[in-house]
Amino acid sequence: MRGVVAAGNAHTAQAAAEILRAGGNAVDAAVAAAAMSWIAEPLLASPGGAGMMTVALSGRPPATVDFFSTVPGRGAAAPTSRDFAAVEVDFGAASQVFHVGRGSAAVPLALPGLVESARRFGTLPLSDVLRPAVTTARAGVPLSAGGAHVFGLLWPILVRDPDTVALFAPRGRPPAAGEPLRNEPLADLLEELGRTGVVPESLRAGILAGFGPERGGSITAADLDTAGVSVGEPRRIRLGDWEALTSPRVGGRLVALICEELAACARAPTDAAEVLRMARASATGHRHRGAAGNAVTPGSTTHISVVDSVGGAVAVTLTNGEGCGHLIPGTGAQMNNFLGEEDLSPGGFHAHTPGARLPTMIAPTVALHGGKPVLACGSGGSNRIRSSVAQVLYRVACLGQPLDEAVHAPRVHAEDDAVWLELEGLDDPDACLRALADEFSRVYPFNTVDFFFGGVHTVLRGDDGHLQGQGDRRRGGQAVEV
Fold first, then answer.
1. C-alpha span between 249 and 235 (Å, rounded)
2. Is it the case that residue 128 has pLDDT exceeding 70?
3. Contact present, 327 and 312 (Cβ < 8 Å)
4. Which of 13, 270, 299, 402 would suit a FRET pair with 317, their CA atoms being 20 to 30 Å apart?
């Protein structure tokens, strides 16, 4: 086998598999999959968004490539008329207000982040790595059922802009599962990037034309000149004879807190006691969340994990927020709305200092066993990321559960006096609910596994060298062995 990949969409995973077959390493495959996600999962990830990658390659020090967005506004006064509006999104059982518009856009670093990752750690020419995404963007890719669900949810945001509707929904309604998604402008952007190896000037020009102060945004030329990708040491978490490498930022810190609390004691003797222990650990992480805020949002984020045959493991998480409702002119890329997300602005909207890097919960994670990279995982899911990633790591590294069981085991997440729980798979759901109700005043049960709890798409190299992957069915996960 050449490797294994797990991602939130079959076409995203297949792009990585194609690059592994061509002889690329785990980073090449992850970059190819990330670019494909912009075609196949366009409301979850975009060149107008951001992300983070954790890399562990054989014979090289591990690293985290941080390309999460920075706060705009350098060298300019605040716009006199900021385009910043509340939009209510109906999730069926509940509705939630998001803030969108040109004034909700932070500096996007997704494209520079992938370029830097490929330059430092990849092995194939960038044009080869991006070719699957370019070809698919021109030919079209059928929208998945999960993607159609997201289009339906975020439709009130998309209809702000006729150009966005024309690109993604030419029939004037949310696209249905199976309908093709094509994106010629994005294909042109990626083709130029592959040919030159540098972020095209058209992206910069589009950002300034569409999201500068004169359009009600805040992004300036100074922001684009000074915002950059950082490469540094990952955070390390000791889990018995395993070691996990994750984000050095708040998301990774909270994953570490939860993992360490879970690993400190043996598994509880009953499901009810174990669920309560996981809820307490999750709540501990929430109390230490710091600048990451506390809003419970759906989490429009996707994740890709890759392990190759030569000892490399990569985890990359990508996000676009809910999107601001506008495309970057000329690129086919929807812009993020990070400045409109409450959990990224706990001090109030537009209170961050220009140039500061926004906080993030994303936590792409690679785990070592016997000093070798053997597992990659991560998740979408906003503030549930910390709980979801930590619980999967705990189940694999500390409990020794098979990968499919660890990924699809019931999840629990707690914040303050509230707790959310999946009931599917529990031996005695009523006992679990009673145990939680004794400690939390608000208990929100889900009868089955749910999109709310993220998608921990995970790959693993077993002790015998066998490679396996598990896509999380909560978010349409797919795994491909090569």
1. 8
2. yes
3. no
4. 402
Report in angstroms the alpha-carbon separations of 41 from 218, 303, 331: 27, 11, 16
Integer Cα distance of 274 and 109 in angstroms: 40
**Strand duo 85-90 + 95-100: pairing:** antiparallel
Specify whether the CB–CB gap between 203 and 220 falls below 8 A: no
End-to-end C-alpha distance for the chain, whole angstroms: 5
Q: Which pLDDT tens digit goes with each residue over 217-231?
A: 999 999 999 999 999
Q: What does the alpha-carbon distance between residue 106 and residue 358 come to, in Å, rounded to a whole number?
A: 9
Give CA–CA dist 357/337, Å, rounded. 15
Question: Which residue do the tokens 């979408």 mark?
Answer: 380
317 has pLDDT over 80: yes
Sign of dihedral through CA atoms 85, 94, 153, 297?
positive
For residues 214 and 451, what is the distance between their CA atoms, to the nearest angstrom? 38
Q: Of residues 301, 302, 317, 319, which has the active-site annotation?
A: 301
Over range 45-65, report the average pLDDT. 96
Could you read off the pLDDT of 351-363 as tens digits, one per residue? Answer: 899 999 999 999 9
Q: What burial letters (b/e) apply to 242-256, b meaning 16+ CB within 10 Å?
A: bbbbbbbbbbbbbbb
The secondary structure of 307-368, three-state, reads EECCCCEEEEEEECCCCCCCEECCCCEEECCHHHCHHHCCCCCCCCCCCCECCCCCCCEEEE
pLDDT at 95 over 80: no
The mean predicted confidence, pLDDT, of the chain is 93
- Predicted local distance difference test score (pLDDT) of residue 338: 95
Statement: residue 329 has pLDDT above 50: yes
Residue 56 burial by Cβ neighbours in a 10 Å radius (0-12, 13-18, 19+): buried
CA-to-CA distance for 36 and 18, rounded, in angstroms?
12
Which residues span the domain enclosing 448? Answer: 3-481
Quick one: tokens of 49?
């968004």
109 secondary structure, DSSP code: -
DSSP of 187-222: HHHHHHHHHHSS--HHHHHHHHHHHSGGGT----HH
Q: What is the mean pLDDT of residues 193-220?
A: 96
pTM, whole model, 2 decimals? 0.95
301 is catalytic: yes
Per-residue model confidence (pLDDT) at position 96: 74
Q: Is 139 exposed, middle or buried (0-12, 13-18, 19+ CB in 10 A)?
A: exposed
Per-residue pLDDT band for 296 (boundaries 50, 70, 90) equals very low
pLDDT of residue 288: 57
Q: Which domain CATH number covers 258?
A: 3.60.20.40
Residues 10, 287 contacting (CB under 8 angstroms): no
Q: How many domains does the chain have?
A: 1
- Tell which residue, 445, 453, 468, has the closest CA to residue 396: 468
